[in-house]
């Protein structure tokens, strides 16, 4: 009997544990190939007319490189390796199909993802495999969200359009999915002599991030989970500290690892529940779950509305006056708007690839309201610059601030002077980043 050869296509699930698709594939095949398609200049997440640059800036790209090295290292513990394919094409499907044919793959898996383009890629892959007359079993399981679509007390097409009704219903009727059993072994890797366009991982250079602890990979994700919960108990004060503007421990920093799938939201939730059971349960521990629910809401909203996430009128289909002025846009990017709190936040982003949640709200509000710019250009710049870019959360939040998304009030504008007085009362943050940018 011929061997069953499996190929797992790593995309935004760059981890081994609680990776349901990988685990299911591993249980069905004799040999396994683990593949990542590397395309740093491909614009996969949104329309490219808004920002004539590659969609991944240096900070985010460095984090991806760190994550790929970590994933390969972890795979080596399973006597496996990560095959990184290089392609200059925007569509990675052809690269996967070529590999499927070359290795006589019998089973193909990828993690389910809410993204419009991720789902489109998977459908195109299946269509091309069928057109080629290949007999392949497809495996796609969801472990990227807290809940599965079948759990909701509403049809997904009738999902609530705003967060609070969504949150109340899922809290009342849904139970977070359990994490998968620990994966202890993987099938062996087949002969790979026929593979072309394989990259040498050593060519993916890495450097130390401005926030040195913000290092990509599954291992670092779990180290941060342990640090934030068990080593420091910072989670027990999260609700009081979460609006900080700078520093490491005022917030969890889980978003960067979640964005690449180095850790799953279910793993974070499971550890949070253990912490609440063994140490303390309070409003702050609940608030971390609350933030995971915001992520959940945006992911399912993207699933429902697809590429309307990138439309000027948003998911609400509201036409609002907007403008785009290149000079104004560049001044905002460089932190030269004349609004000190905004300029400090934007200079922080430019230098580090990171900005606090409070900062993101303020600079987005300024971009849309004070500067009168089309919200999509701001969203696209964040996509380029943020280490923790997540398509659903980023574009969903920008729609929210742009008045075309999930905000039931339809309009959200912050008083920038008041916000600065509240969250930077001693002017320390503004002074630090305005001075640092000048050096």
UniProtKB/TrEMBL annotation:
Cofactor: how and how many bound: Binds 1 FAD per subunit. Binds 1 5,10-methenyltetrahydrofolate (MTHF) per subunit.
Pfam families, sorted: DNA_photolyase, FAD_binding_7
SUPFAM superfamilies: Cryptochrome/photolyase FAD-binding domain, Cryptochrome/photolyase, N-terminal domain
Keyword terms of this UniProt record: Chromophore, FAD, Flavoprotein
Residue ranges occupied by any Photolyase/cryptochrome alpha/beta domain in the UniProt entry: 4-146
Gene Ontology molecular function: DNA binding; DNA photolyase activity; FAD binding
This protein's record includes keyword Signal: no
PROSITE patterns linked to this entry: DNA_PHOTOLYASES_1_1, PHR_CRY_ALPHA_BETA
Entry cofactors: FAD; (6R)-5,10-methylene-5,6,7,8-tetrahydrofolate
Origin superkingdom: Bacteria
Keyword Cell cycle: no
Binding site for FAD: 238, 251-255, 388-390
TM region(s), chain numbering: none
Its job: May have a photoreceptor function.
Similarity comment text for this entry: Belongs to the DNA photolyase class-1 family.
Protein name in the entry: Cryptochrome DASH
Organism of origin: Brumicola pallidula DSM 14239 = ACAM 615
């Amino acid at each position: 009997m011929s061997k069953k050869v499996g190929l797992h296509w790593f995309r935004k699930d760059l981890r081994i544990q609680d990776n349901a698709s990988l685990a299911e594939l591993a249980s069905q095949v004799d040999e396994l190939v683990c593949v990542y398609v590397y395309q740093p200049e491909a614009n996969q997440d949104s329309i490219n007319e808004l920002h004539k640059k590659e969609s991944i800036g240096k900070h985010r790209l460095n984090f991806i490189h760190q994550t790929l090295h970590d994933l390969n290292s972890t795979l080596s513990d399973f006597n496996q390796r990560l095959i990184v394919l290089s392609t200059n094409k925007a569509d990675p499907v052809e690269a996967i199909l070529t590999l499927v044919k070359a290795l006589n793959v019998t089973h193909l898996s990828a993690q389910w993802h809410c993204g419009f383009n991720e789902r489109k890629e998977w459908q195109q892959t299946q269509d091309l495999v069928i057109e080629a007359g290949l007999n392949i079993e497809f495996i796609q399981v969801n472990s990227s969200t807290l809940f599965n679509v079948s759990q909701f007390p509403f049809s997904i097409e009738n999902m609530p359009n705003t967060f609070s009704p969504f949150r109340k219903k899922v809290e009342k009727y849904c139970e977070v999915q359990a994490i998968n059993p620990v994966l202890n072994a993987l099938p062996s890797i087949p002969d790979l002599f026929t593979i072309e366009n394989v990259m040498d991982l050593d060519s993916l250079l890495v450097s130390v991030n401005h926030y040195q602890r913000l290092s990509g990979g599954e291992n670092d994700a779990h180290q941060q989970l342990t640090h934030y919960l068990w080593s420091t108990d910072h989670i027990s004060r999260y609700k009081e500290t979460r609006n900080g503007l700078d520093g490491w421990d005022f917030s969890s920093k889980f978003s960067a690892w979640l964005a690449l799938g180095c850790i799953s939201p279910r793993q974070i939730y499971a550890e949070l529940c253990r912490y609440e059971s063994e140490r303390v349960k309070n409003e702050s521990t609940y608030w971390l779950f609350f933030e995971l629910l915001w992520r959940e809401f945006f992911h399912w909203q993207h699933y429902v509305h697809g590429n309307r996430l990138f439309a000027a009128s948003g998911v609400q289909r509201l036409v609002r006056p907007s403008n785009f002025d290149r000079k104004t846009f560049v001044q905002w990017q460089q932190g030269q708007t004349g609004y000190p709190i905004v300029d400090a936040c934007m200079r922080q982003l430019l230098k580090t690839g990171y900005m606090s949640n409070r900062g993101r709200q303020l600079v987005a509000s300024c971009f849309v309201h004070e500067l009168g710019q089309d919200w999509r250009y701001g969203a696209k710049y964040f996509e380029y610059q943020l280490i923790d870019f997540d398509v659903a959360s980023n574009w969903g939040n920008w729609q929210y601030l742009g008045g075309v998304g999930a905000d039931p009030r339809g309009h959200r504008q912050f008083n920038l002077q008041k916000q600065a007085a509240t969250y930077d009362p001693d002017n320390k943050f503004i002074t630090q980043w305005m001075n640092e940018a000048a050096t």
